[in-house]
Design brief:
Mean pLDDT: 90
Keywords: Membrane, Transmembrane, Transmembrane helix
Membrane topology: Multi-pass membrane protein
Low-confidence stretches: none
Radius of gyration: 20 Å
Order of helices and strands: HHHHHHHHHHHHHH
Distance between the termini: 24 Å
Transmembrane segments: 12-29, 49-72, 84-102, 108-132, 144-164, 170-190, 223-244, 256-278, 287-306, 312-329, 350-370, 376-395
Structural class: mainly alpha
Shape: globular
Helix content: over 70%
Pfam families: MFS_1
Protein name: MFS transporter
């Protein structure tokens, strides 16, 4: 397969963004609010450990699911396309999984439901994101990455808002599931997809999931810098609900998470598309990613040294400014270091391990720090240091300006 050259139409970009809105609503309604409340209800004496175990197991499933379903979609030869079927299958599985979470009577079923949600929603994400390098020319990828970032950001807001507003954990899960259906169907009905013949289908071998960073150093550095920046961000937000409750002393922490998320989203939306378009026009990616990462690190330092409600508001605003540019430009950068056009879905899935693996490690790092090694100030300083390291190392990528 060759790189696409025909510009994508605004309608396709809008529907892709809408589908990503539903996807990330289904992800972040649980992550931001529902899982924390459910852990607190089912295991009130050990809520931090319960949330860490459930979140970590789910993230471990996503580490497997994203590259696996990306590889499967690369090799799908159905006439209706190779990405759309897995978008539909993933969305349907996500709806069923959220239903399991809605009725979970204990931590074990809660963990199983969240693992199922991570598996299926990551199948949908792998197919959605692989459609971009399939169909979008290089000169438009910052812009399209920006609109994907809009969908992701609004998904965080809508997910948190629905979870906090509907009244009840079970209803929160069900409303997020219904919203996923409503936002995904229009994208599926557009039926714009790429196809391959059976003779073009590459073999699928376990060893193909290992992409040698010595042979493909730019891919390796891109993966590692994304991992560090996401690890810093995951460490910062994994216990945000409990930070507001126990450190800040905010009276209504679940509503507080929604307020902070809305502020973060507002500032993010002010930079996410502009940053991507600006990067497309000047033909540079690394400088945008570097400065965005440093701004995100500054937000963590605000939380470390100003643990108040006002400080949390400032940190949310600063984080949004940096993460907006990072979302659009880093996605475009990643699509430019993929080793092979025939394996875009699989390779983007491997890249996305750098998003999900930090979710596994963040609770492991955060739990002992919060409980025994200095508390939230130490946690947020660590978050900032990891983010700065990722920002600096992006300059080790040589093939992208």
């Amino acid at each position: 397969m060759t790189e696409p050259t025909v510009p994508v139409r605004p309608r396709w970009t809008a529907l892709l963004s809408l589908a990503s809105l539903g996807l990330f609503t289904a992800f972040y309604g649980p992550i931001q609010v529902l899982l924390g409340l459910q852990a607190q209800e089912l295991a009130p004496e050990h809520k931090e450990v319960a949330l860490g175990v459930v979140s970590g197991l789910g993230a471990a499933c996503s580490v497997i699911a994203n590259p696996l379903f990306g590889a499967i979609s690369d090799r799908t030869t159905w006439r209706i396309g190779r990405r759309l079927p897995w978008t539909a299958i993933g969305a349907a599985g996500g709806v069923a999984s959220l239903g399991i979470l809605a009725g979970a009577p204990n931590i074990v079923i809660m963990a199983l439901g969240w693992c199922a949600a991570q598996l299926t929603l990551n199948a949908m994400q792998a197919a959605l994101f692989a459609a971009v390098p399939d169909q979008v020319p290089l000169r438009q990828r910052g812009m399209v990455g920006g609109w994907l970032g809009v969908g992701q950001t609004l998904g965080i807001v809508v997910g948190s808002g629905l979870a906090a507003a509907v009244g009840g954990i079970a209803m929160g899960y069900l409303v997020c599931a219904a919203f996923l259906v409503v936002t995904t169907v229009p994208y599926l009905l557009l039926r714009k997809d790429t196809t391959i013949e059976a003779t073009e289908r590459p073999r699928l071998r376990v060893r193909d999931f290992w992409i040698n960073p010595v042979r493909f150093p730019d891919f390796g550095w891109a993966w590692f810098t994304r991992f560090l920046l996401n690890l810093g961000n995951s460490v910062a937000i994994v216990y945000l609900l409990y930070f507001l409750q126990d450190e800040v002393g905010y009276a209504d922490p679940d509503s507080g998470v929604f307020v902070l998320t809305a502020i973060y989203a507002a500032t993010l939306l002010s930079t996410v598309v502009i940053g991507g378009v600006w990067s497309d026009r000047v033909g540079r990616r690394r400088v945008f990613v570097c400065w965005a990462g440093n701004v995100m690190a500054a937000a963590s330092l605000v939380l470390a040294f100003w643990p108040t409600w006002t400080g949390a508001i400032v940190a949310a605003a600063v984080l949004g400014l940096g993460f907006g540019v990072y979302l659009s430009v880093d996605f475009a950068l990643m699509t430019e270091v993929l080793p092979a056009a025939t394996d875009r879905g699989k390779d983007l899935g491997v890249i996305n391990i750098a998003n999900s693996l930090p979710q596994v490690l963040a609770p492991v790092l955060a739990a002992p720090i919060v409980t025994h090694l200095g508390g939230y100030p130490v946690l947020y300083v660590l978050s900032a240091l990891v983010g700065v390291a990722g920002s600096v190392l992006v300059y080790r990528i040589r093939s992208v300006n």
